[in-house]
Amino acid sequence: MDFSAAPRTLPEALALAAARFPQRGVAIFDRRGRTAERRTYPEFLAAAQRGAARLAARGVQPKDRVLVCLPTSWPWFEAWFGALLLGAWPIAIAPGGALGSSEAQAERVDQLIERTGAKLLVCTAAFRDDALQHGVQHVRTHCVTAEDLADQTVGSIPPRAPAEPDDIAYLQLTSGSTGFPRGVIVTHRNAIHNCWASSIAIGAPHGAPAHAWADCMVSWLPLYHDMGLVGCVLLSIVSGFDLWLLSPRAFLAKPAIWLQHVGAHGKTISPAPNFGYQLSVERISEEDTATLELGNFSAAMVGAEMVRPDTMEAFVGKFGPRGFRDTALRPCYGLAEGTLAVTFDLRGEGPRTRPVPTHDVDLELNQVVTVGAPIPDTELRITAPDGSVLPDGAI
Question: How far apart are the C-alpha atoms of 383 and 68, rounded to whole Å?
Fold first, then answer.
């Protein structure tokens, strides 16, 4: 695997994106997904540096944990990348209203502050006020709002030695599906390798890594999720893609806006869980479908949950007449403990299935979709709870 052109660290990746692709950058759409505010990579880098200076003025130092509890927005990027440039360890967490009741979310964030030993929580004023009404303790003492941070007098970033590949870059929370979320330590080497290996895997059917031919990434995934953070934001920066971001709520309100933007910015890659493709099948009207042009949807990654054959077939059936090719669907598998990507469909032949092995477990499926082979430099072992290796066909 050729890493000769890859950056060594995430700050280096951002600096290289600004130098090599000064006309490309990041765009964030409004709540309705209609208009976008765009920053080129040089502007993005400057904003991250301002964020670093503002956090430094609040006392943040290298190795401090900084919780970023914001929706998809410029303040999110300035806080997360600002902490990164300082050598602090950013931790993205779900914003207010994303995970159930406001009281449960406030208590969850309060526990995360305590468990991670966070120096600072960056959140909205609305979340802070709501959390304080529920009597949480750590939010009160550790919170700075994005609004207050924006008003912070900007000084200079304290000098520090450049980050090294094996330094910790950030902490990624696990999903919490089997217990309270845990913080996965991700080094700069982990992040860069996973992005570079993913680009190679995405590009396998095209004969070249994605960073050699793709124009952009379009995503509505939340930034606190590893698929949104690594698979969209960091992959775009490391690869030099244009990144077009919709909010999850905008997509849920009108799924058509995702595919409208997928078809509008050149050769595009975009990831989504199975339910995103299913929602598009169910909720995009025939009128909106007729306006789509999906010939540039070059890689449609499918992961983060079980990939269902019927959903893939329905998506191709509905959007094939608009130029979408079944070979663009690329099932994959990942997890925070692996930085993100672990396996990828490398063939680009469309979703491939096999019969469900006979077993006592009822998956409510007759066929299962392959999620491909391990990405470069990755070994995979499937084990039972006791650590023993399972045979082929075991569930």
Answer: 35
Encoded tokens for 252: 């849920």
pLDDT tens by residue, 171-214: 999 876 667 888 999 999 999 999 999 999 999 999 999 999 99
Q: Are 67 and 120 in contact (CB under 8 A)?
A: yes
Q: Residue 304 carries which DSSP code?
A: S
* Residue 213 identity (one-letter amino acid): W
Q: Residue 55: what pLDDT?
A: 96
pLDDT digits (tens, 9 = 90+) for 223-256: 999 999 999 999 999 999 999 999 999 999 999 9
Helix (H, G, I), strand (E, B) or coil at 29: strand
pTM for this structure? 0.94
Three-state secondary structure string covering the chain: CCCCCCCCCHHHHHHHHHHHCCCCEEEEECCCCCCEEEEEHHHHHHHHHHHHHHHHHCCCCCCCEEEEECCCCHHHHHHHHHHHHHCCEEEECCCCCCCCCHHHHHHHHHHHHHHHCCCEEEECHHHHHHHHHCCCCHHHHHEEEHHHHHCCCCCCCCCCCCCCCCCEEEEEECCCCCCCCCEEEEEHHHHHHHHHHHHHHHHHHHCCCHHHCCCEEEECCCCCCHHHHHHHHHHHHHHCCEEEECCHHHHHHCCHHHHHHHCCCCCEEEEECHHHHHHHHHHCCHHHHCCCCCCCEEEEEECCCCCCHHHHHHHHHHHHHHCCCHHHEEEEEECHHHCCEEEECCCCCCCCEEECCCCCCCCCCCEEECCCEECCCCCCCCECCCCCECCCCCC
Query: Which residue in this structure is represented by tokens 């608009």?
Result: 322
What pLDDT shows up at residue 140?
Answer: 81
- Span between the terminal Cα atoms of the chain, in Å: 32
| Cα gap 187→198, rounded to integer Å | 17
